[in-house]
Specification:
5-stranded mixed β-sheet, about 50% helix, alpha+beta, disordered N terminus, Cytochrome p450, single chain, 15 helices, globular, 3-stranded antiparallel β-sheet
Length: about 400
């Protein structure tokens, strides 16, 4: 669609496609106009949905699970990837059920268990950097971010690293909004693989994620195989792609802003705040669906009960009313109340693992590399999806 003119009202966005090339390449331009002219936008595409873009609205909706419910199967992704009748656990439940199912896996995400990942992730990063240095550079999206996030996921879940190439293939095919037949086939193959792993762990338990789920119990409730399957689908999917996307955007910024690279080398104490800022800036999950549990009124718009309401986390994280210089990475930004992991009862369980991967990436690369520079002057190639944000490729040269 043509870019709408300022103060054009909601009618200017009737044809906006969140999965179009123009949107995926620069969603923030659209968000800026939506926040000003149409903060509650309705789209007839992909079955119809509303999109919230102002920080206060997105955060309030994320906190208000009673009005903006997650307990409607299939609405978290727009469009629905594969029609189904069972909820994805625990993200498609609300309290009190959500509290019980989340409690089942809280021990799996304990601080002690996450800390045990530090050494294996550090070792993996060192090997990946060794490989890149040996060839003088490479594609940081496919040769660093993807193998790191998949390797960390394998270490966390205790699953065979040899299966990682299968996860990458399936998850890439599962989230192609323009190819519904391909996404459904990939989902079936991915699901069959998970079922096989569950059966293997029943027969021979190990110290891994699936075995822990099989043994977990809260208030006398133990997970069924169907529930374990649902947990695995969420963890394997969310734990891989979103972190890889955040890594790719972070490294791209540093490749294009050498002053920030040098500042982090001089001031390594800034790394934790820089990670938070890169999470805000990248917003790997741009848009996430909820469902209006009853009729709602917001900014003069009537949202009928039962309609899908998309929370624009990427738009909220770039709202200039909350974040000064929102289109820049301000390494020491404080406060930084970004919504990259959501908010409220549904805040992301895997956030500590993503933070650890990003922090260790910076620690190793800043120590081992003099500089990081883009090797290709061509425009950046973004993944062709508007609800996620990450680079398809990031060609760089490295100076040890």
């Amino acid at each position: 669609m043509d870019e709408p003119t300022p103060s054009a009202g909601c009618e200017a966005f009737d044809d906006l496609d969140i999965h179009s090339r123009s949107f995926s390449e620069n969603p923030f331009l659209h968000y800026d106009q939506l926040r000003q002219d149409c903060p509650v936008m309705h789209s007839p595409r992909y079955g119809g949905f509303w999109l919230l873009t102002r920080y206060d609205d997105v955060k309030s909706a994320a906190l208000d699970w009673r009005s903006y419910t997650s307990s409607v199967v299939g609405v978290t992704a727009i469009p629905i990837i594969t029609p189904r009748t069972e909820p994805m656990l625990p993200i498609e439940l609300d309290p009190p059920l959500h509290s019980r199912y989340r409690a089942l896996v809280n021990p799996v995400f304990s601080a002690e268990r996450v800390e045990k990942l530090r050494q294996p992730i550090m070792a993996l990063i060192e090997r990946l950097v060794d490989n890149l240095l040996a060839q003088g550079g490479g594609d940081l999206a496919t040769e660093y971010a993807v193998p790191l996030s998949v390797g960390a996921l394998a270490a966390f879940t205790g699953l065979p690293p040899a299966d990682s190439h299968l996860w990458v293939k399936w998850l890439d095919r599962m989230f192609q909004p323009k190819d519904p037949a391909g996404t459904q086939q990939a989902s079936r193959e991915f699901g069959a693989h998970i079922d096989q792993l569950i059966a293997e762990r029943h027969a021979q338990p190990q110290d891994d994620f699936i075995s822990l789920l099989i043994a977990a119990e809260v208030d006398g409730h133990r997970l069924t195989d169907s529930e374990i399957h649902s947990y695995c689908t969420v963890i394997f999917g969310a734990g891989f792609e979103t972190t890889a996307d955040a890594l790719s955007v972070m490294l791209c910024w540093l490749a294009e802003h050498p002053d920030d690279w040098k500042r982090l080398q001089r001031e390594p104490g800034l790394i934790p705040s820089a990670v938070e800022e890169f999470l805000r800036f990248s917003s790997p999950i741009q848009i996430f669906g909820r469902n209006a549990s009853h009729d709602l009124e917001l900014h003069g718009q009537h949202i009928p009960g039962g309609d899908i309401v998309a929370l624009g986390f990427g738009a909220a994280n770039h709202d200039p009313a909350v974040f000064a210089e929102a289109e820049r990475c301000v390494l020491d930004r404080s406060p930084n109340k970004h919504l990259s992991f959501g908010a409220g009862v549904h805040i992301c369980l895997g956030a500590p693992i993503a933070r650890l991967e990003m922090q260790l990436t910076l620690e190793v690369m800043l120590r081992r590399l003099t500089s990081l520079q883009r090797a290709d002057a061509a425009p950046l190639v973004w993944k062709p999806r508007g609800d996620r944000r990450g680079l398809a490729t990031l060609l760089v040269t490295l100076q040890p």
